[in-house]
């Protein structure tokens, strides 16, 4: 496309069109405005009001949206199933891994047979989705989030849920969201363990974090979710994959070395909160608005929930802000130029 233009009517509704290089114009089906709230302006519904949360109107709107879920393991499988049952019309799931026995206590719908056959996690979700909501379009990407295929499909999503274990995966999601102005929701769970008396292990806390990242707002880096050093440290995967995998497993319970932690109850809580955060943004119901809830953190050992406003974090605009899929892809020379699938 050569360029585009947009207009806003007095009621706040927006419409936009783009021009190709032969100067042929095309109206866009949807204009998304993502700030403290996420509003959808459909070309065929100029006078439509925002549907009430949990209503038939909400379900009708979700049918028209495409959501991406990066990581469909412990937390991600729960997030993806909620989005499926809420009624999203199109879901992309991205995960390179397969189901193993150690996953059975935290991946929804997984079975012993799935583990024995090493079924890809994205295939497992697709199978379940076909039984639950056969009309939903499912895109499966059995690759890393930083692959060209994953980036291509996720670039068409209306919003993205980041449910990954690694700083590298989160960085890709953040870069994608910044480059393409896509609302991003990121979730994390950790259960730090300490040594109690007599050397026995004891739970120090049970923590969950939910972040909503709006285009042009504070990114995950400025919120301290990950650093460049974290990404560099993960390069260990290339040199010592077994040690890296142990570190990922310990991500739930650092210091304990539990290979298959039974954390589904904590994951359920965090997954529910992050999906609810989207609903609050797209179908507003909070009495005091959404700006105060850029981040939510819970600590179950002391039964506290903290909220952080968008203004509590520095808004560091990426140099790739609204850059699209220009070269180098997502600002990473290693990714080179986008290669589109046939």
Automatic annotation (TrEMBL):
Classification via Gene3D superfamilies: NAD(P)-binding Rossmann-like Domain
Domain (THIF-type NAD/FAD binding fold) ranges: 53-280
GO terms classed as biological process: cyclic threonylcarbamoyladenosine biosynthetic process
Signal peptide annotation: none
GO molecular function: tRNA threonylcarbamoyladenosine dehydratase; ubiquitin-like modifier activating enzyme activity
PANTHER family for this protein: TRNA THREONYLCARBAMOYLADENOSINE DEHYDRATASE
Protein name: UBA/THIF-type NAD/FAD binding protein
Originating organism: Alcanivorax hongdengensis A-11-3
């Amino acid at each position: 496309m050569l360029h585009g233009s947009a207009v806003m009517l007095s009621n706040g509704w927006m419409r936009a069109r783009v021009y190709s290089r032969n100067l042929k114009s095309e109206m866009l089906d949807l204009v998304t405005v993502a700030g403290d709230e996420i509003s959808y302006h459909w070309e065929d519904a100029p006078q439509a009001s925002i549907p009430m949360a949990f209503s038939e109107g909400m379900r009708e709107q979700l049918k028209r949206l495409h959501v991406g879920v990066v990581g469909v393991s412990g937390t991600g499988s729960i997030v993806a199933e909620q989005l499926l049952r809420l009624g999203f019309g199109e879901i992309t799931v991205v995960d390179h891994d397969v189901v193993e026995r150690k996953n059975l206590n935290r991946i929804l719908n997984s079975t012993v047979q799935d583990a024995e056959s090493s079924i890809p996690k994205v295939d497992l979700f697709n199978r379940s989705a076909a039984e639950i909501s056969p009309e939903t379009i499912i895109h499966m990407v059995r690759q890393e989030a930083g692959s060209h295929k994953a980036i291509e499909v996720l670039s068409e999503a209306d919003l993205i849920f980041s449910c990954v274990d690694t700083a590298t995966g989160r960085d890709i999601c953040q870069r994608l969201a910044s480059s393409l102005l896509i609302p991003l929701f990121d979730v994390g769970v950790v259960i730090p363990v300490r040594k109690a008396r007599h050397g026995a292990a004891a739970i120090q806390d049970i923590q969950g974090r939910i972040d909503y990242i709006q285009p042009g707002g504070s990114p995950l880096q400025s919120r301290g979710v990950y650093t460049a050093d974290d990404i560099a440290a993960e390069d260990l995967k290339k040199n010592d994959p077994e040690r890296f995998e142990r570190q990922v497993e310990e991500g739930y319970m650092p210091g304990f070395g539990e290979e298959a932690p039974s954390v589904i109850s904590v994951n359920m809580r965090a997954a529910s909160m992050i999906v609810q955060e989207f609903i609050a943004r797209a179908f507003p119901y909070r009495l005091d608005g959404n700006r105060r809830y850029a981040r939510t953190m819970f600590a179950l050992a002391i039964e506290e929930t903290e909220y952080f406003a968008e203004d509590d974090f520095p808004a560091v605009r990426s140099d790739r802000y609204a850059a699209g899929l220009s070269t180098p892809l997502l600002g990473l020379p290693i990714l080179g130029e986008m290669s589109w699938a046939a």
